[in-house]
Amino acid sequence: QVQLVESGGGLVQAGGSLRLSCAASGRTFSGCAMGWFRRAPGKEREFVAAISVSGGGTSYADYVKGRFTIARDNAKKTVYLLMNSLKPEDTAVYYCAADLFLGSRLRVGVSDYDYWGQGTQVTVSS
Q1: What are phi and psi of 7, to 5 degrees?
Q2: Residue whose C-alpha is closest to residue 45's, from 98, 87, 1, 96
Q3: Which residues does 32 contact at the CB level (< 8 Å), separation at least 6?
Q4: Which of 6, 12, 81, 114 is 20 to 30 A from 40, alpha carbon to alpha carbon?
């Protein structure tokens, strides 16, 4: 079992930055790949970024590549999403998720992930 709690969301102006954190509890965090997803109003939940167990492998959606960075600290059982150059279209509820399956590639599908946090709201004003 993995319990996930996101924090760090808020209101920011376009061009600004935010750092989201996801604190995990449970024994299996260090054995999970971790991902960030988001859901904008009226849209489906979509992939943002993922990171491997060791942190050495990462994957990003094209619409955040070069602006967002995912990182993890296994000792603190925490995964981060650093978001720079934020745009109004980044406005969404952001969720972290844990993937128990350890394959050769990081997965990007909503249904691939086993545990989810409750989400944190990010609002970017123009």
Answers
A1: -155, 170
A2: 96
A3: 2, 53, 98, 99, 100, 114, 115
A4: 114
State both tokens at 19.
């750092």
d(CA 117, CA 39): 13
* Pick from 86, 82, 96, 5: nearest CA to 47: 96
Cβ proximity of 119 and 95 under 8 Å: yes
First-residue to last-residue Cα distance in the chain: 40
Cα–Cα distance for residue pair 66/68, rounded to 1 Å: 6
Contact 4, 97 (CB under 8 A): yes
**Model confidence over 48-90: pLDDT tens digits?**
999 999 999 999 999 999 999 999 999 999 999 999 999 999 9
* Residues 94/38, Cβ–Cβ less than 8 Å: yes
